[in-house]
Amino acid sequence: MITSLDNPEPNYKTIVSHYKGKRFNSPNDLVIDKKGDIYFTDPYFGLPKDRREELNEQGFQGVYKIDKEGNVKLLTNNWPGPNGIGLAPDNRTLYITNTRPPGLIAFNLSNTGDLSNQRIIFNAQVLVKASVSKQKPDGMVINKDDIIFMRGPVGVLIITPGGKHLGTIRTNKRTSNCAFNEDETVLYITCDDLVLRAILK
């Protein structure tokens, strides 16, 4: 959407809708690197549940890159349920959350936008199983110290690049995503019916 934040209007522009002549499933989350290139996940969660296999023209659920010229590149289709996505501050690591199995995956990211060394750095299966909501990893944001704030089963999980779970911001709500203010002293968290604000030390 191309509009002013002060006076938003529904002015939409489609950047890209197809890959190799086939429609994307339902682009879900994105992050923009320092060069202005866009990385996004394309699960089939937005397709009707009873017709997902039929309507999945790509035949997989992928992670893509769009450069500033509008060229689309498939980065990986190894994960059945890519969801949230984030970049390390130095733009050398790309993170995605996956739904099945639920976890946080990291990739080395080259200067040309190629991925390598994929690894699961945080397995959320135990937390999901023990939770009431059964919420799986979703949206994320990464601070200047490369600490990952990720939607998890009971709120927002705080995780190091090595996969250590430092703590959890409990929301007692079904949450979806989060974002910082400019100086990273406030974390805004979107829920089903609320936007929450967490003051960070």
UniProtKB/TrEMBL annotation:
Highest taxon, organism lineage: Bacteria
GO MF annotation, one: hydrolase activity
InterPro entries hit by this protein: 6-blade_b-propeller_TolB-like, SGL, SMP-30/CGR1_Lactonase
Keyword list, A-Z: Hydrolase
SUPFAM superfamilies (alphabetical): Calcium-dependent phosphotriesterase
SMP-30/Gluconolactonase/LRE-like region domain location: 12-190
Pfam families the UniProt entry points to: SGL
PANTHER family: LACTONASE DRP35, LIPOPROTEIN-RELATED
The protein's name in its UniProt record: SMP-30/Gluconolactonase/LRE-like region domain-containing protein
Source organism of the structure: Aquimarina aggregata
